[in-house]
# Entry
Amino acid sequence: MCGIVAYIGPREAYPVILKGLKRLEYRGYDSAGVALLNGGIKVYKKKGRVADLEESIVGKDLHAHAGIGHTRWATHGEPNDSNAHPHLSNNGKLAMIHNGIIENYAQLKRELSTKGYIFHSDTDTEVLLNFIEYIQTNNNCGLEEAVRIALKRVVGAYVIVLVDQDNPDTLIAARKGSPLVIGIGKNEHFLASDASPIIEYTKEVVYVNDYEVAIIKADELILKNLGNERQTPYITKLDMELAAIEKGGYEHFMLKEIFEQPQTIYDCLRGRLDAEAGTIKMSGIEKYAEQIMNANRIVMVACGTSWHAGLVAEYIFEELCRINVEVEYASEFRYRNPVINKGDVIIAISQSGETADTLVAIENAKAKGAIILGVVNVVGSSIARISDAGAYTHAGPEIGVASTKAFTAQLAVLTMIALKIGYEKGTLDRDRYLKLVRELNDIPDKVSTVLKGSEHIKALAEKYKGAGDALFLGRGYNFPVALEGALKLKEISYIHAEGYPAAEMKHGPIALVDEHLPVVFVATKDSYHEKVISNMQEIKARKGKVIAVINDGDEQSTALANDVMIVPEADEILAPMLSIIPLQLLSYYVGVAKGVDVDKPRNLAKSVTVE
Ligand code: G6P
# Structure
Protein backbone atom coordinates (compact mmCIF):
# COMPACT_ATOMS: atom_id res chain seq x y z
CA MET A 1 0.00 0.00 0.00
CA CYS A 2 1.14 3.64 -0.32
CA GLY A 3 4.90 3.97 -0.05
CA ILE A 4 6.70 7.01 1.29
CA VAL A 5 10.30 8.04 0.70
CA ALA A 6 12.01 11.32 1.51
CA TYR A 7 15.55 12.57 1.70
CA ILE A 8 17.44 15.58 3.00
CA GLY A 9 21.21 15.90 2.92
CA PRO A 10 24.22 16.39 0.69
CA ARG A 11 23.36 13.75 -1.94
CA GLU A 12 21.23 14.32 -5.01
CA ALA A 13 17.77 13.64 -3.63
CA TYR A 14 16.07 12.40 -6.80
CA PRO A 15 18.13 9.19 -7.38
CA VAL A 16 17.81 8.30 -3.68
CA ILE A 17 14.05 8.81 -3.76
CA LEU A 18 13.57 7.00 -7.05
CA LYS A 19 15.53 3.96 -5.90
CA GLY A 20 13.60 4.01 -2.64
CA LEU A 21 10.28 4.07 -4.48
CA LYS A 22 11.41 1.05 -6.49
CA ARG A 23 12.27 -0.76 -3.28
CA LEU A 24 8.75 -0.03 -2.01
CA GLU A 25 7.04 -1.18 -5.22
CA TYR A 26 6.28 -4.51 -3.58
CA ARG A 27 3.78 -2.82 -1.27
CA GLY A 28 1.39 -2.39 -4.20
CA TYR A 29 0.48 0.92 -5.89
CA ASP A 30 -0.99 2.44 -9.02
CA SER A 31 0.73 5.82 -9.43
CA ALA A 32 3.94 7.49 -8.34
CA GLY A 33 5.35 10.97 -7.86
CA VAL A 34 8.11 13.15 -6.45
CA ALA A 35 8.47 16.73 -5.24
CA LEU A 36 11.93 18.27 -5.30
CA LEU A 37 13.05 21.43 -3.57
CA ASN A 38 15.12 23.44 -5.94
CA GLY A 39 14.44 27.15 -5.63
CA GLY A 40 10.74 26.43 -5.76
CA ILE A 41 8.97 23.09 -5.51
CA LYS A 42 8.93 20.90 -8.60
CA VAL A 43 6.28 18.19 -8.62
CA TYR A 44 6.28 15.32 -11.10
CA LYS A 45 3.69 12.54 -10.92
CA LYS A 46 2.31 9.84 -13.12
CA LYS A 47 -0.25 7.07 -13.18
CA GLY A 48 1.35 3.63 -13.51
CA ARG A 49 4.71 2.28 -12.44
CA VAL A 50 7.70 4.12 -10.98
CA ALA A 51 9.43 3.35 -14.29
CA ASP A 52 6.69 5.32 -16.11
CA LEU A 53 7.34 8.30 -13.86
CA GLU A 54 11.08 7.98 -14.43
CA GLU A 55 10.63 7.88 -18.18
CA SER A 56 8.24 10.83 -18.22
CA ILE A 57 10.72 13.18 -16.52
CA VAL A 58 13.90 12.33 -18.39
CA GLY A 59 15.64 15.58 -19.29
CA LYS A 60 13.94 17.71 -16.61
CA ASP A 61 15.93 19.61 -14.04
CA LEU A 62 15.90 17.14 -11.16
CA HIS A 63 18.68 18.68 -9.12
CA ALA A 64 17.80 18.95 -5.41
CA HIS A 65 19.13 18.04 -1.99
CA ALA A 66 15.74 17.58 -0.42
CA GLY A 67 12.62 15.95 -1.71
CA ILE A 68 9.71 13.61 -1.12
CA GLY A 69 8.44 10.67 -3.17
CA HIS A 70 5.36 8.49 -3.08
CA THR A 71 3.71 5.43 -4.54
CA ARG A 72 -0.07 5.66 -4.25
CA TRP A 73 -2.55 2.81 -3.78
CA ALA A 74 -5.85 4.47 -4.63
CA THR A 75 -8.44 4.94 -1.90
CA HIS A 76 -10.14 8.32 -2.53
CA GLY A 77 -10.31 8.85 -6.27
CA GLU A 78 -9.22 6.69 -9.17
CA PRO A 79 -5.57 6.11 -10.04
CA ASN A 80 -4.63 9.01 -12.36
CA ASP A 81 -2.02 11.72 -12.62
CA SER A 82 -3.92 14.35 -10.64
CA ASN A 83 -4.78 12.04 -7.75
CA ALA A 84 -1.16 10.88 -7.54
CA HIS A 85 0.96 12.36 -4.74
CA PRO A 86 2.69 14.71 -3.94
CA HIS A 87 -0.04 17.34 -3.84
CA LEU A 88 0.60 21.06 -3.88
CA SER A 89 -1.25 23.45 -1.59
CA ASN A 90 -3.30 26.28 -3.10
CA ASN A 91 -0.58 28.87 -2.58
CA GLY A 92 1.91 26.53 -4.27
CA LYS A 93 4.33 26.72 -1.36
CA LEU A 94 3.71 23.37 0.33
CA ALA A 95 3.86 19.85 -1.08
CA MET A 96 2.80 16.75 0.79
CA ILE A 97 2.71 12.96 0.53
CA HIS A 98 0.39 10.83 2.65
CA ASN A 99 -0.22 7.22 3.51
CA GLY A 100 -3.52 6.44 5.27
CA ILE A 101 -7.06 7.76 5.23
CA ILE A 102 -8.42 11.05 6.59
CA GLU A 103 -11.92 10.03 7.63
CA ASN A 104 -13.32 13.51 8.24
CA TYR A 105 -11.94 14.90 4.99
CA ALA A 106 -15.41 15.64 3.55
CA GLN A 107 -16.24 18.02 6.39
CA LEU A 108 -12.83 19.72 6.20
CA LYS A 109 -13.25 20.05 2.45
CA ARG A 110 -16.62 21.77 2.87
CA GLU A 111 -15.11 24.21 5.36
CA LEU A 112 -12.19 25.00 3.09
CA SER A 113 -14.40 25.38 0.01
CA THR A 114 -16.40 28.09 1.74
CA LYS A 115 -13.10 29.90 2.30
CA GLY A 116 -12.34 29.79 -1.40
CA TYR A 117 -10.03 26.79 -1.56
CA ILE A 118 -9.91 24.95 -4.90
CA PHE A 119 -9.18 21.23 -5.20
CA HIS A 120 -7.47 19.65 -8.15
CA SER A 121 -7.88 16.03 -7.09
CA ASP A 122 -10.41 13.75 -5.41
CA THR A 123 -8.06 12.91 -2.57
CA ASP A 124 -8.35 13.31 1.17
CA THR A 125 -4.64 14.19 1.11
CA GLU A 126 -5.11 17.42 -0.79
CA VAL A 127 -7.78 18.43 1.73
CA LEU A 128 -5.47 17.88 4.70
CA LEU A 129 -2.65 19.73 2.99
CA ASN A 130 -4.81 22.77 2.31
CA PHE A 131 -6.16 22.62 5.82
CA ILE A 132 -2.56 22.86 7.04
CA GLU A 133 -1.90 25.74 4.65
CA TYR A 134 -5.06 27.49 5.86
CA ILE A 135 -3.99 27.19 9.52
CA GLN A 136 -0.49 28.39 8.68
CA THR A 137 -1.81 31.46 6.88
CA ASN A 138 -4.60 32.22 9.29
CA ASN A 139 -2.54 31.82 12.46
CA ASN A 140 0.53 33.30 10.84
CA CYS A 141 2.58 30.43 12.25
CA GLY A 142 5.31 28.10 11.06
CA LEU A 143 4.58 24.87 9.24
CA GLU A 144 5.45 22.70 12.22
CA GLU A 145 2.89 24.42 14.41
CA ALA A 146 0.28 24.37 11.65
CA VAL A 147 0.77 20.62 11.26
CA ARG A 148 0.31 20.04 14.99
CA ILE A 149 -2.86 22.13 15.11
CA ALA A 150 -4.29 20.46 11.99
CA LEU A 151 -3.59 16.94 13.20
CA LYS A 152 -5.54 17.53 16.38
CA ARG A 153 -8.62 17.92 14.16
CA VAL A 154 -7.90 14.93 11.97
CA VAL A 155 -9.76 11.65 12.36
CA GLY A 156 -8.08 8.73 10.67
CA ALA A 157 -4.67 7.26 10.01
CA TYR A 158 -1.72 8.94 8.42
CA VAL A 159 1.88 9.31 7.72
CA ILE A 160 2.52 12.67 6.12
CA VAL A 161 5.71 14.31 4.94
CA LEU A 162 5.74 17.95 3.86
CA VAL A 163 8.16 20.26 2.18
CA ASP A 164 7.90 24.03 2.37
CA GLN A 165 9.29 26.24 -0.36
CA ASP A 166 10.11 28.96 2.19
CA ASN A 167 12.04 26.54 4.45
CA PRO A 168 13.90 24.30 2.03
CA ASP A 169 16.27 22.96 4.68
CA THR A 170 13.50 21.24 6.67
CA LEU A 171 11.14 18.31 6.18
CA ILE A 172 8.15 17.94 8.47
CA ALA A 173 6.66 14.48 9.04
CA ALA A 174 4.03 13.03 11.32
CA ARG A 175 2.48 9.70 12.00
CA LYS A 176 -0.62 8.05 13.42
CA GLY A 177 -1.42 4.47 12.58
CA SER A 178 0.66 4.13 9.42
CA PRO A 179 4.38 3.31 9.59
CA LEU A 180 7.32 5.75 9.32
CA VAL A 181 11.01 4.95 9.68
CA ILE A 182 13.73 7.62 9.72
CA GLY A 183 17.27 6.57 8.77
CA ILE A 184 20.04 8.54 10.45
CA GLY A 185 23.05 9.14 8.19
CA LYS A 186 26.03 11.46 8.51
CA ASN A 187 24.49 14.89 8.05
CA GLU A 188 21.60 13.35 6.16
CA HIS A 189 18.23 11.75 6.86
CA PHE A 190 16.18 9.20 4.95
CA LEU A 191 12.47 8.70 5.53
CA ALA A 192 10.49 5.69 4.37
CA SER A 193 7.47 3.52 5.05
CA ASP A 194 9.77 0.66 5.93
CA ALA A 195 13.47 0.04 6.21
CA SER A 196 14.03 -1.35 2.70
CA PRO A 197 14.83 2.00 1.00
CA ILE A 198 17.11 2.97 3.88
CA ILE A 199 19.19 -0.15 4.49
CA GLU A 200 21.84 0.56 1.87
CA TYR A 201 22.67 3.95 3.39
CA THR A 202 22.46 3.42 7.13
CA LYS A 203 21.47 0.85 9.72
CA GLU A 204 20.58 3.39 12.40
CA VAL A 205 16.88 4.15 12.38
CA VAL A 206 14.18 5.75 14.47
CA TYR A 207 10.63 4.40 14.34
CA VAL A 208 8.34 7.39 14.72
CA ASN A 209 5.50 6.80 17.20
CA ASP A 210 1.85 7.67 16.85
CA TYR A 211 1.04 11.35 17.39
CA GLU A 212 4.66 12.39 16.95
CA VAL A 213 5.80 15.15 14.61
CA ALA A 214 9.35 14.99 13.23
CA ILE A 215 11.24 18.12 12.25
CA ILE A 216 14.07 16.94 10.06
CA LYS A 217 17.06 18.88 8.79
CA ALA A 218 20.13 17.33 7.18
CA ASP A 219 22.00 17.39 10.49
CA GLU A 220 19.18 17.41 13.02
CA LEU A 221 16.16 15.32 13.98
CA ILE A 222 13.66 16.67 16.47
CA LEU A 223 10.63 14.70 17.60
CA LYS A 224 7.71 16.36 19.35
CA ASN A 225 4.27 15.23 20.43
CA LEU A 226 1.18 17.10 19.33
CA GLY A 227 1.41 19.12 22.57
CA ASN A 228 4.77 20.55 21.38
CA GLU A 229 6.81 18.61 23.96
CA ARG A 230 10.18 17.25 22.85
CA GLN A 231 10.38 13.45 22.65
CA THR A 232 13.63 11.49 22.76
CA PRO A 233 14.29 9.71 19.47
CA TYR A 234 15.04 6.06 20.22
CA ILE A 235 17.69 4.83 17.76
CA THR A 236 17.45 1.17 16.74
CA LYS A 237 20.01 -0.81 14.74
CA LEU A 238 18.58 -2.60 11.70
CA ASP A 239 19.31 -6.30 11.66
CA MET A 240 18.92 -6.73 7.92
CA GLU A 241 21.27 -7.06 4.95
CA LEU A 242 20.78 -5.55 1.52
CA ALA A 243 20.88 -9.03 -0.09
CA ALA A 244 17.68 -9.89 1.76
CA ILE A 245 15.73 -7.38 -0.28
CA GLU A 246 17.25 -8.27 -3.65
CA LYS A 247 16.31 -11.12 -5.99
CA GLY A 248 19.59 -13.01 -5.73
CA GLY A 249 19.39 -14.57 -9.20
CA TYR A 250 15.75 -15.66 -9.03
CA GLU A 251 13.31 -14.45 -11.65
CA HIS A 252 10.88 -13.21 -9.03
CA PHE A 253 10.90 -12.44 -5.33
CA MET A 254 8.04 -14.89 -4.87
CA LEU A 255 10.09 -17.77 -6.25
CA LYS A 256 13.10 -16.73 -4.17
CA GLU A 257 10.93 -16.62 -1.07
CA ILE A 258 9.35 -20.03 -1.75
CA PHE A 259 12.83 -21.52 -2.13
CA GLU A 260 14.10 -19.77 0.99
CA GLN A 261 11.70 -21.69 3.21
CA PRO A 262 14.05 -24.45 4.38
CA GLN A 263 16.32 -21.67 5.65
CA THR A 264 13.60 -19.39 7.02
CA ILE A 265 11.92 -22.20 8.97
CA TYR A 266 15.33 -23.21 10.25
CA ASP A 267 16.05 -19.58 11.28
CA CYS A 268 12.74 -19.49 13.07
CA LEU A 269 13.49 -22.66 15.05
CA ARG A 270 17.13 -21.77 15.69
CA GLY A 271 17.94 -20.86 19.26
CA ARG A 272 14.44 -21.88 20.35
CA LEU A 273 14.00 -25.54 19.58
CA ASP A 274 16.64 -27.99 20.81
CA ALA A 275 15.63 -31.38 19.42
CA GLU A 276 18.33 -33.30 21.28
CA ALA A 277 17.52 -31.87 24.65
CA GLY A 278 13.81 -31.87 23.83
CA THR A 279 13.39 -28.25 24.88
CA ILE A 280 11.68 -25.19 23.45
CA LYS A 281 12.68 -21.72 24.62
CA MET A 282 10.45 -18.82 23.68
CA SER A 283 11.93 -15.99 25.70
CA GLY A 284 9.31 -13.55 24.40
CA ILE A 285 6.41 -15.42 25.90
CA GLU A 286 7.91 -17.12 29.00
CA LYS A 287 6.60 -14.35 31.20
CA TYR A 288 3.04 -14.99 30.03
CA ALA A 289 3.22 -18.82 29.85
CA GLU A 290 1.18 -19.27 33.03
CA GLN A 291 -1.53 -16.91 31.84
CA ILE A 292 -1.73 -18.60 28.45
CA MET A 293 -2.01 -22.01 30.11
CA ASN A 294 -4.85 -20.80 32.30
CA ALA A 295 -6.60 -18.72 29.66
CA ASN A 296 -10.25 -19.52 29.13
CA ARG A 297 -9.77 -18.85 25.49
CA ILE A 298 -7.29 -17.67 22.93
CA VAL A 299 -8.41 -15.45 20.08
CA MET A 300 -6.27 -15.38 16.94
CA VAL A 301 -6.70 -12.08 15.11
CA ALA A 302 -5.32 -11.63 11.61
CA CYS A 303 -6.02 -10.96 7.93
CA GLY A 304 -5.31 -12.80 4.67
CA THR A 305 -2.65 -15.48 4.75
CA SER A 306 -1.92 -14.75 8.39
CA TRP A 307 -5.56 -15.57 9.16
CA HIS A 308 -5.04 -18.97 7.54
CA ALA A 309 -2.03 -19.54 9.80
CA GLY A 310 -4.37 -18.72 12.69
CA LEU A 311 -6.81 -21.39 11.52
CA VAL A 312 -4.09 -24.06 11.48
CA ALA A 313 -3.04 -22.88 14.93
CA GLU A 314 -6.62 -23.22 16.18
CA TYR A 315 -6.51 -26.94 15.43
CA ILE A 316 -3.06 -27.27 16.99
CA PHE A 317 -3.77 -25.34 20.20
CA GLU A 318 -7.07 -27.09 20.79
CA GLU A 319 -5.46 -30.49 20.28
CA LEU A 320 -2.27 -29.94 22.26
CA CYS A 321 -3.31 -27.40 24.90
CA ARG A 322 -7.03 -28.07 25.25
CA ILE A 323 -7.76 -24.36 25.23
CA ASN A 324 -10.76 -22.97 23.41
CA VAL A 325 -9.51 -21.04 20.36
CA GLU A 326 -11.35 -18.65 18.08
CA VAL A 327 -9.93 -17.25 14.88
CA GLU A 328 -11.16 -13.83 13.89
CA TYR A 329 -10.85 -11.64 10.83
CA ALA A 330 -9.38 -8.50 12.35
CA SER A 331 -11.67 -6.28 10.27
CA GLU A 332 -14.77 -7.94 11.74
CA PHE A 333 -13.42 -8.29 15.24
CA ARG A 334 -12.60 -4.59 15.57
CA TYR A 335 -16.04 -3.35 14.58
CA ARG A 336 -18.40 -5.69 16.31
CA ASN A 337 -18.60 -5.55 20.05
CA PRO A 338 -16.74 -8.73 20.93
CA VAL A 339 -16.91 -10.16 24.42
CA ILE A 340 -13.42 -9.78 25.81
CA ASN A 341 -12.75 -10.79 29.37
CA LYS A 342 -9.75 -9.76 31.41
CA GLY A 343 -7.10 -12.43 30.93
CA ASP A 344 -8.24 -13.48 27.46
CA VAL A 345 -5.21 -14.05 25.31
CA ILE A 346 -5.22 -12.45 21.88
CA ILE A 347 -2.61 -13.65 19.40
CA ALA A 348 -2.13 -11.14 16.59
CA ILE A 349 -0.56 -12.76 13.55
CA SER A 350 0.93 -10.46 10.95
CA GLN A 351 3.79 -10.56 8.49
CA SER A 352 4.12 -6.79 8.13
CA GLY A 353 3.09 -5.88 11.64
CA GLU A 354 1.34 -2.87 10.09
CA THR A 355 -2.02 -4.20 8.89
CA ALA A 356 -4.41 -1.47 10.01
CA ASP A 357 -7.32 -3.75 10.93
CA THR A 358 -5.15 -6.08 13.01
CA LEU A 359 -3.47 -3.16 14.73
CA VAL A 360 -6.71 -1.50 15.78
CA ALA A 361 -8.31 -4.81 16.75
CA ILE A 362 -5.55 -5.47 19.27
CA GLU A 363 -5.52 -1.88 20.50
CA ASN A 364 -9.22 -2.28 21.34
CA ALA A 365 -8.70 -5.68 22.97
CA LYS A 366 -5.78 -4.38 25.00
CA ALA A 367 -7.89 -1.53 26.33
CA LYS A 368 -10.38 -4.15 27.56
CA GLY A 369 -7.72 -6.02 29.53
CA ALA A 370 -6.71 -8.79 27.13
CA ILE A 371 -3.13 -10.00 26.95
CA ILE A 372 -1.74 -9.37 23.48
CA LEU A 373 0.84 -11.68 21.97
CA GLY A 374 2.29 -10.77 18.58
CA VAL A 375 3.50 -13.30 16.02
CA VAL A 376 5.06 -10.82 13.67
CA ASN A 377 7.74 -10.86 10.99
CA VAL A 378 8.84 -7.23 10.71
CA VAL A 379 10.97 -6.25 13.67
CA GLY A 380 9.99 -2.96 15.28
CA SER A 381 6.65 -2.81 13.46
CA SER A 382 3.56 -1.29 15.07
CA ILE A 383 1.92 -4.60 16.03
CA ALA A 384 5.16 -5.88 17.51
CA ARG A 385 5.47 -2.75 19.57
CA ILE A 386 1.95 -2.65 20.90
CA SER A 387 1.95 -6.35 21.87
CA ASP A 388 2.62 -7.25 25.50
CA ALA A 389 4.90 -10.03 24.36
CA GLY A 390 5.39 -12.29 21.40
CA ALA A 391 7.74 -14.05 19.05
CA TYR A 392 9.20 -12.81 15.80
CA THR A 393 8.99 -15.20 12.88
CA HIS A 394 12.47 -14.29 11.56
CA ALA A 395 11.55 -15.05 7.94
CA GLY A 396 13.45 -11.98 6.68
CA PRO A 397 11.91 -9.34 4.41
CA GLU A 398 9.05 -10.72 2.33
CA ILE A 399 8.79 -8.70 -0.87
CA GLY A 400 6.48 -10.77 -3.10
CA VAL A 401 2.94 -9.57 -2.51
CA ALA A 402 1.63 -13.11 -2.06
CA SER A 403 2.80 -14.32 1.31
CA THR A 404 4.76 -17.60 1.29
CA LYS A 405 7.72 -17.86 3.64
CA ALA A 406 5.98 -15.73 6.25
CA PHE A 407 3.16 -18.30 6.39
CA THR A 408 5.39 -21.30 7.10
CA ALA A 409 7.37 -19.28 9.64
CA GLN A 410 4.12 -18.28 11.37
CA LEU A 411 3.16 -21.95 11.53
CA ALA A 412 6.56 -22.83 12.99
CA VAL A 413 6.27 -20.18 15.72
CA LEU A 414 2.68 -20.98 16.60
CA THR A 415 3.48 -24.69 16.74
CA MET A 416 6.38 -24.07 19.11
CA ILE A 417 4.19 -21.97 21.39
CA ALA A 418 1.50 -24.68 21.41
CA LEU A 419 4.03 -27.44 22.09
CA LYS A 420 5.53 -25.52 24.95
CA ILE A 421 2.21 -24.58 26.53
CA GLY A 422 0.69 -28.04 26.02
CA TYR A 423 3.67 -29.79 27.54
CA GLU A 424 3.97 -27.46 30.52
CA LYS A 425 0.24 -27.61 31.09
CA GLY A 426 0.26 -31.39 30.98
CA THR A 427 -2.24 -31.76 28.16
CA LEU A 428 0.52 -33.03 25.87
CA ASP A 429 2.30 -36.15 27.09
CA ARG A 430 6.08 -36.39 27.03
CA ASP A 431 6.35 -39.01 24.30
CA ARG A 432 4.20 -37.15 21.85
CA TYR A 433 5.87 -33.86 22.77
CA LEU A 434 9.32 -35.29 22.08
CA LYS A 435 8.17 -36.88 18.83
CA LEU A 436 6.74 -33.55 17.66
CA VAL A 437 9.84 -31.61 18.71
CA ARG A 438 12.06 -33.99 16.70
CA GLU A 439 9.77 -33.94 13.70
CA LEU A 440 9.53 -30.17 13.75
CA ASN A 441 13.31 -30.05 13.67
CA ASP A 442 13.22 -32.14 10.47
CA ILE A 443 10.75 -29.88 8.67
CA PRO A 444 13.36 -27.66 6.90
CA ASP A 445 14.92 -30.75 5.26
CA LYS A 446 11.54 -32.06 4.24
CA VAL A 447 10.66 -28.69 2.68
CA SER A 448 13.88 -28.99 0.63
CA THR A 449 12.66 -32.38 -0.60
CA VAL A 450 9.34 -30.90 -1.73
CA LEU A 451 11.15 -28.11 -3.57
CA LYS A 452 13.10 -30.68 -5.58
CA GLY A 453 9.80 -31.53 -7.29
CA SER A 454 9.37 -27.99 -8.67
CA GLU A 455 9.87 -28.96 -12.33
CA HIS A 456 7.02 -31.45 -12.15
CA ILE A 457 4.78 -28.77 -10.62
CA LYS A 458 5.80 -26.36 -13.36
CA ALA A 459 4.60 -28.91 -15.94
CA LEU A 460 1.28 -29.24 -14.08
CA ALA A 461 0.92 -25.47 -14.16
CA GLU A 462 1.22 -25.53 -17.95
CA LYS A 463 -1.46 -28.21 -18.10
CA TYR A 464 -3.97 -26.39 -15.90
CA LYS A 465 -3.22 -22.73 -16.63
CA GLY A 466 -6.29 -22.41 -18.86
CA ALA A 467 -8.75 -23.19 -16.05
CA GLY A 468 -11.37 -20.55 -15.33
CA ASP A 469 -12.07 -21.80 -11.80
CA ALA A 470 -10.50 -24.16 -9.32
CA LEU A 471 -11.59 -25.78 -6.09
CA PHE A 472 -9.23 -26.57 -3.21
CA LEU A 473 -10.37 -29.13 -0.65
CA GLY A 474 -8.92 -30.43 2.58
CA ARG A 475 -9.96 -31.61 6.04
CA GLY A 476 -8.60 -31.05 9.51
CA TYR A 477 -5.16 -29.47 9.57
CA ASN A 478 -5.19 -29.42 5.78
CA PHE A 479 -8.45 -27.49 5.51
CA PRO A 480 -6.74 -24.12 6.11
CA VAL A 481 -4.05 -25.24 3.66
CA ALA A 482 -6.79 -25.63 1.03
CA LEU A 483 -7.96 -22.08 1.81
CA GLU A 484 -4.42 -20.77 1.51
CA GLY A 485 -3.83 -22.71 -1.73
CA ALA A 486 -6.94 -21.14 -3.25
CA LEU A 487 -5.94 -17.67 -2.06
CA LYS A 488 -2.47 -18.05 -3.60
CA LEU A 489 -3.91 -19.13 -6.96
CA LYS A 490 -6.35 -16.24 -7.20
CA GLU A 491 -3.82 -13.65 -6.07
CA ILE A 492 -1.15 -14.69 -8.52
CA SER A 493 -2.99 -16.09 -11.54
CA TYR A 494 -6.38 -14.30 -11.36
CA ILE A 495 -8.09 -17.69 -11.65
CA HIS A 496 -11.19 -17.81 -9.51
CA ALA A 497 -10.44 -20.33 -6.78
CA GLU A 498 -12.33 -21.42 -3.70
CA GLY A 499 -11.08 -23.32 -0.70
CA TYR A 500 -13.55 -25.50 1.15
CA PRO A 501 -13.64 -28.20 3.79
CA ALA A 502 -13.69 -31.36 1.68
CA ALA A 503 -16.87 -32.73 3.25
CA GLU A 504 -18.72 -29.41 3.13
CA MET A 505 -18.13 -29.37 -0.63
CA LYS A 506 -21.30 -31.48 -0.98
CA HIS A 507 -23.35 -28.55 0.30
CA GLY A 508 -22.78 -26.29 -2.67
CA PRO A 509 -19.50 -26.28 -4.58
CA ILE A 510 -20.16 -29.78 -5.95
CA ALA A 511 -22.64 -28.10 -8.31
CA LEU A 512 -19.62 -26.59 -10.10
CA VAL A 513 -17.95 -29.90 -10.78
CA ASP A 514 -17.69 -30.98 -14.42
CA GLU A 515 -14.94 -32.34 -16.65
CA HIS A 516 -13.31 -28.87 -16.83
CA LEU A 517 -12.99 -28.11 -13.13
CA PRO A 518 -9.61 -28.79 -11.50
CA VAL A 519 -10.14 -29.87 -7.90
CA VAL A 520 -7.02 -29.77 -5.76
CA PHE A 521 -7.13 -32.11 -2.78
CA VAL A 522 -4.74 -31.65 0.11
CA ALA A 523 -4.68 -35.30 1.05
CA THR A 524 -1.59 -36.15 3.07
CA LYS A 525 -1.89 -39.16 5.40
CA ASP A 526 -3.60 -38.10 8.60
CA SER A 527 -6.56 -39.10 10.70
CA TYR A 528 -8.92 -37.76 8.04
CA HIS A 529 -7.31 -39.54 5.11
CA GLU A 530 -9.96 -42.20 4.43
CA LYS A 531 -12.67 -39.54 4.52
CA VAL A 532 -10.75 -37.38 2.05
CA ILE A 533 -10.42 -40.36 -0.29
CA SER A 534 -14.22 -40.70 -0.23
CA ASN A 535 -14.55 -37.02 -1.16
CA MET A 536 -12.07 -37.54 -3.99
CA GLN A 537 -14.26 -40.36 -5.25
CA GLU A 538 -17.28 -38.06 -5.21
CA ILE A 539 -15.46 -35.57 -7.44
CA LYS A 540 -14.14 -38.32 -9.72
CA ALA A 541 -17.65 -39.72 -10.16
CA ARG A 542 -18.66 -36.33 -11.57
CA LYS A 543 -15.69 -36.22 -13.94
CA GLY A 544 -13.84 -33.44 -12.09
CA LYS A 545 -10.07 -33.30 -12.63
CA VAL A 546 -8.41 -34.36 -9.38
CA ILE A 547 -4.97 -33.00 -8.52
CA ALA A 548 -3.80 -34.30 -5.16
CA VAL A 549 -1.08 -33.34 -2.72
CA ILE A 550 -0.17 -36.71 -1.22
CA ASN A 551 2.55 -38.64 0.54
CA ASP A 552 4.75 -40.96 -1.44
CA GLY A 553 3.29 -44.46 -1.74
CA ASP A 554 -0.33 -43.41 -1.35
CA GLU A 555 -1.67 -45.76 -4.02
CA GLN A 556 -5.32 -45.16 -3.29
CA SER A 557 -5.06 -41.43 -4.00
CA THR A 558 -2.72 -41.95 -6.94
CA ALA A 559 -5.27 -44.26 -8.55
CA LEU A 560 -8.02 -41.68 -8.20
CA ALA A 561 -6.09 -38.55 -9.11
CA ASN A 562 -5.34 -37.22 -12.59
CA ASP A 563 -2.13 -35.73 -11.20
CA VAL A 564 -0.29 -35.82 -7.90
CA MET A 565 2.26 -33.67 -6.08
CA ILE A 566 4.31 -35.55 -3.51
CA VAL A 567 5.37 -34.32 -0.06
CA PRO A 568 7.21 -36.31 2.64
CA GLU A 569 5.20 -37.77 5.51
CA ALA A 570 4.96 -35.83 8.77
CA ASP A 571 2.81 -35.80 11.87
CA GLU A 572 -0.54 -34.29 10.89
CA ILE A 573 0.09 -31.29 13.16
CA LEU A 574 3.17 -30.38 11.16
CA ALA A 575 1.92 -31.45 7.71
CA PRO A 576 0.61 -27.98 6.65
CA MET A 577 4.19 -26.64 6.55
CA LEU A 578 4.84 -29.21 3.83
CA SER A 579 1.53 -29.50 2.00
CA ILE A 580 1.37 -25.75 1.32
CA ILE A 581 4.69 -25.76 -0.58
CA PRO A 582 3.45 -27.45 -3.81
CA LEU A 583 0.42 -25.15 -3.80
CA GLN A 584 2.65 -22.07 -3.58
CA LEU A 585 4.71 -23.40 -6.48
CA LEU A 586 1.63 -24.30 -8.52
CA SER A 587 0.22 -20.77 -8.16
CA TYR A 588 3.56 -19.22 -8.96
CA TYR A 589 4.07 -21.23 -12.15
CA VAL A 590 0.46 -20.75 -13.31
CA GLY A 591 0.83 -17.00 -12.74
CA VAL A 592 4.09 -16.87 -14.69
CA ALA A 593 2.63 -19.03 -17.48
CA LYS A 594 -0.28 -16.58 -17.75
CA GLY A 595 2.06 -13.59 -17.89
CA VAL A 596 0.97 -12.11 -14.57
CA ASP A 597 3.40 -9.79 -12.77
CA VAL A 598 3.50 -12.25 -9.86
CA ASP A 599 5.44 -10.04 -7.45
CA LYS A 600 2.99 -7.19 -7.94
CA PRO A 601 -0.37 -8.60 -8.99
CA ARG A 602 -3.04 -6.06 -9.86
CA ASN A 603 -4.92 -4.25 -7.09
CA LEU A 604 -3.17 -6.06 -4.25
CA ALA A 605 -1.03 -4.46 -1.60
CA LYS A 606 1.59 -6.10 0.53
CA SER A 607 1.04 -4.04 3.59
CA VAL A 608 -2.57 -2.98 4.04
CA THR A 609 -2.28 0.15 6.12
CA VAL A 610 -5.81 1.39 5.51
CA GLU A 611 -8.93 -0.36 6.77
C1 G6P B 1 -2.30 -8.32 2.41
C2 G6P B 1 -1.22 -9.16 1.78
C3 G6P B 1 -1.37 -10.61 2.23
C4 G6P B 1 -1.34 -10.68 3.75
C5 G6P B 1 -2.40 -9.79 4.37
C6 G6P B 1 -2.20 -9.67 5.88
O1 G6P B 1 -3.53 -8.68 1.89
O2 G6P B 1 -1.28 -9.08 0.37
O3 G6P B 1 -0.31 -11.37 1.69
O4 G6P B 1 -1.57 -12.00 4.13
O5 G6P B 1 -2.31 -8.46 3.84
O6 G6P B 1 -0.99 -9.01 6.09
P1 G6P B 1 -0.09 -9.14 7.38
O7 G6P B 1 1.11 -8.30 7.07
O8 G6P B 1 -0.88 -8.60 8.53
O9 G6P B 1 0.24 -10.58 7.55
User: Anything to note?
Assistant: Residues 303-306, 350-352, 355, 358, 401-403, 604, 606-608 surround 6-O-phosphono-alpha-D-glucopyranose (CB under 6 Å).
